[in-house]
Design brief:
The protein has helices at 59-71, 189-206, 246-265, 311-319, 325-336, 340-347, 350-362, 368-386, 397-409, 414-427, 431-438, 446-459, 461-468, 474-485, 492-509, and strands spanning 8-18, 75-76, 79-80, 83-86, 96-99, 106-115, 118-131, 135-139, 165-169, 176-182, 218-227, 238-243, 273-278, 283-289, 299-300, 307-308. It is of the alpha+beta class. The chain folds into four domains: 8-134 and 170-316, no CATH class; 135-169, no CATH class; 323-434, no CATH class; 446-509, Orthogonal Bundle (Arc Repressor Mutant, subunit A). The strands form four sheets. A nine-stranded mixed β-sheet has the order 2-6-7-10-1-11-12-13-14. Strand 12, helix 3 and strand 13 (273-278) form a beta-alpha-beta unit. The longest helix has 20 residues, at 246-265. It is elongated. The model is unreliable at 148-159 (pLDDT under 50).
Amino acid sequence: MKSDTAFEPVVGLEVHAELATRSKMFCACPVVDSTLASPNSAVCPVCSGMPGVLPVVNRQAVEYGLRVALALECSIAPTSLFARKNYFYPDLPKGYQISQYEYPLAQNGRLVIQTARGECTVRIRRVHLEEDTGKLTHLSPDGAHTGSPAGSSTEAPAAPLGTPYSLVDLNRAGLPLLEIVSEPDLHSVEEVRAYAVGLRALLRYLGVNSGDMQKGVIRFEANVSVRPPGSHSLGTRVEIKNLNSFRALERSIAYEVQRQSERIRQGQAVRQETVGWDEALGATFTQRGKEEAHDYRYFPEPDLPPLVIEPEWIEQVRASLPELPQAKIRRFQDQYRLPVYDAGVLVMEPAVADYFEAVAAASPTLSPKQAANWVSGELFGLMNQSGDSIEAVRVAPSALAALLERLERGEINPLTAKAVLAEMYASGQSSQAIIGRRGLGQISDADQIAGLVRQTLQDHPREVSSYLAGKETLAHWFFGQVMRRTQGQANPQVVRQELERQLGELTVHS
């Protein structure tokens, strides 16, 4: 669904990213994969909310938060405070969530994204630490799932007395969670996707989050409003909760923009509320009226002292930051002379960027543009078919470079190179072994190709007559016949030149 063009969308994103620490935010329970571990197998009195227990801050989680905040160019607060965010829900065992509100870890940052209009800067309002909630699995009386969260694998018997019920898994309760809140600087679905993709890539480069959205380790909440073009005021916002895919993010925002625009055109008010997204119906649905801060009754967490960040620690973390995606995109443009689009595609996954650089380094004579095209084109295609990640690919960067060198030297043609790469991908063999075993070397001998063209024309006198009568498009058909005769091994450029020469002679003598 496309966004409505009569009104300008205004979108701000809240991104919740689980931090890839070994233990939870305020206790020593291990962080486990919620899709694989037995329910409630990584739970202790602290994360299950038992009376009389005391939380202790996870230092690694704070350091990961600092890495993200510094990468987003935020100002780090020397002292930040944890607070209790009060609301009752079955997956929140204490009846409140330990979060940060008035005094967050960091504020006032930015993320530069690439769009069709060029670079765009999205302001970051705040970055703060909190703990995650548990996971609910909703079931109908017959035991069927009726809206389980992402990654749920719980199976259960039917409910007693034929009533619907929910199961609570607290393995996720208390996991370190980083919330990144943007300003409402996004004005199209394209910009929203670019921001979400760019932020996910940043988290992966920093090593603080796996980016596996199917497991819910990154979740988006979008605040959406619309306004007339040229207006600078903000409309009534609607919050879309718990989006865990780029597709859901794009579709839900496009739908909500259209819905709000239609209401305004009809003279109806947009209600401030929290909505969910139904992927099957392709529509949002009301969950509750939108809460304000006072509804949560924030107050300082009495069991945790202020979080003091020493300047020396900040500088240590800053010095440890890797090359970040935007810097790498600019370097790929300068060093390899790649267009910004190509550089952006390669840089989105750290392992893909490393693979491309290894291919380029393996052959100083190889065109970086050629390498980029084959990595993001043919190799990506094979990966999509197999479902493999770049780490699982059996074609070493040096092996791909050797194949592309043979292509550039004219030993094989592009069609043969694609077939060889597919076999390399499946078998792990080198291009040299495959080409030698199957006799796939390119035919470039002019006399041999001249004979092949001559024989092809002799075999198809009717088509030759049609060509001479003015049906010049048959030249492409003759080319295909020659290539088929040689099983794609003939040098296409030599074939075209020879075919043009012989057809020209026939035209003169006709």
